[in-house]
Design goal:
This protein is an alpha/beta fold. Helix content is 37%, strand content 24%. It contains twelve helices and ten strands. The chain has a six-stranded mixed beta sheet, with helices on both faces. Strands 2-1-4-5 form a four-stranded antiparallel beta sheet, covered by helices on one side. Helix 6 packs across helix 8. The longest helix has 18 residues. The chain is globular, with a radius of gyration of 19 Å. The chain starts with a helix and ends in a 10-residue tail after the last helix. Bound molecules: adenosine-5'-triphosphate (ATP) and magnesium ion. The site of magnesium ion (MG) has 4 residues, from helix 2.
Length: 260
């Protein structure tokens, strides 16, 4: 991290007029003119329908993609000017499909960044066990398994554990609870919410579930067709008069005929 720049603002991540075009063809914008600041220690939820550009926006933060226009700054440094390896070591990333290495065991997957950072083996082992407990997987049972021997939801939980392993200041989480049953999902959401407050990390959390957005976000950024159409705290968000906000709030109405 650039200490000089880090001290000058409380912005951990800043999008400045960011557009992203496929193959740099302006007519094919996936993300259009997004300006947005994520403060240090904030949990910002990116909410949007499938295909609205949420994953693309996350990939612009850790330089898996670079903007076609505008800039993304992480701790004050434009991503195009940072060393991508250093940048990514400071950012935990939970990808949508968990993205575990199939030939690594669960503990090797979680230990990835600590191993690259040459932590002491005993410290790595205790960190892996601590994280497996945290995401509700018994270390004795799961450490030595391979990803194919887990359910989809269990793999997602390992993905969350891996992103937290080296304690990065920034976390990008792309629908991390998407493959979980509603009960486990609610449990993990509650734990995650407490954890986020305790750890004081900067988190960008992607979801298409408005309930999850309301529960976890300090602010909610709503994307629609690659554009940022709303940005508000959960309580203000519900009062916004925008058709896409209405579309989301209408989606949580309990079907008529179901007794409450
Ligand atoms: N490499 C690519 N080439 C062409 N189109 C792409 C590419 N990557 C993404 N897209 C398109 O850009 C749009 C946004 O994709 P993105 O993955 O960011 O959406 P998303 O909001 O994460 O959706 P979901 O909720 O389904 O994960 C989609 O219409 C997608 O088809
Ligand atoms: Mg996505």
């Amino acid at each position: 991290m650039n200490a000089k720049l880090a001290g000058t603002s409380d912005a951990a991540i800043e999008f400045r007029g960011v557009s992203y075009h496929i193959n740099d063809i302006p007519g094919r914008a996936i993300v259009s003119k997004v300006s947005l600041t994520v403060s240090r220690g904030e949990t910002l939820v990116l909410l949007g329908r499938s295909g609205s550009g949420k994953t693309t926006l996350l990939k612009l933060v850790n330089r898996m993609l670079v903007p076609s226009e505008g800039q993304v700054l992480v701790e004050g440094c434009p991503t195009t000017e940072c060393d991508p390896i250093r940048l990514r070591r400071g950012i935990g990333y939970v990808i949508q499909e968990a993205g575990l290495f199939p030939h690594f065991t669960i503990s090797e997957n979680i230990a990835l960044v600590p191993t690259l950072e040459k932590w002491d083996p005993a410290r790595i082992a205790s960190r892996v066990a601590e994280l497996l407990e945290l995401v509700g997987l018994n270390p004795a049972e799961y450490s030595a398994r391979h990803p194919r021997e887990l359910s989809g939801g269990q793999r997602q939980r390992v993905g969350v554990a891996r992103a937290l392993a080296a304690d990065p200041p920034i976390l990008l989480m792309d629908e991390p609870f998407g493959a979980l049953d509603p009960v486990t999902r609610a449990e993990l959401q509650r734990e995650f919410s407490a954890l986020a407050r305790r750890l004081n990390k900067t988190i960008v959390f992607v979801t298409h579930d408005i309930r999850e957005a309301l529960l976890l976000g300090r602010r909610i950024a709503l994307l629609h067709s690659g554009r940022l159409v709303a940005l508000a705290s959960p309580s203000d968000f519900l009062r916004l008069d925008h058709p896409e906000v209405h579309a989301f709030t209408a989606s949580v109405v309990i079907p008529s005929g179901v007794s409450q």
